[in-house]
Amino acid sequence: MKDGFRLYDTHAHLGAALHSGRVHDTSRLLHAMDRAGVDRAMLIPFPVVADLRREHDLIGAALRSYPDRFSGAACIDPFLPEAEFRDELRRCVEVLGLRALKLQPQYQALNPLSSRAEFFFGLAAEFRLPVIAHTGTGVPFSLPSLFIVPARKFPDLTIVLGHAGGSVYMLETIVAAGVCPNICIELSSLMPHHVLEILQHVPASRLMAGADLPESLETELYKILGLEISNAEKESILWGTGRRVFDGESDNP
Ligand SMILES: [Zn+2]
Fold first, then answer.
1. Structural domain harbouring 22
2. Which end of the chain has a smaller Cβ tally under 10 Å, C or N?
């Protein structure tokens, strides 16, 4: 809680990253969250890991220990054999209680227009899991506009455009969310004025805050607190949208 607002970091990473050498354990994340007044975080595996099942187990253990502080997402190589992908996704949902599926196009070169993407997004829809798609770095497959295609093919699926395309492709997220009511935008990496520009076109009920890394918690979440927007909009971006999309809860007043 900060300035009377509950805070949901909808983009956090737990585990060990091979590509960066980062290691985030639960106590480190909780310490950073407590420092910043963050109530809840969506835990996501790093994109390049030694053993994805082990990373999922770590997130499952964090959810069991701190159900009031964490939700969790799976991240599975989209090019695994289909049966293997399906089995691990089912285990993540039914055994570990994960509630979203992350796509990392900068490391997992899945073309959102391909038949393989139809398998990936179709399975997410079947398991009723929102997809969090990293957008921005890693073009072409991380271009926000490409996610219009799976969003239209699976209208009951929610697709969250992580990092809002970054500053360079931010306008594409406005276009994608404008034509697809099932597309939401996670705002990490944007400048505050970019958030205001998005709000001119996309309601706060489809926007959510995220930090990506613990050292960015204050920067990313407090930038929303500092905007000249209504308290209702802040509440949605900082808490309500994430709770509704990921946790199926609507506890707005
Ligand atoms: Zn990330």
1. 8-247
2. C
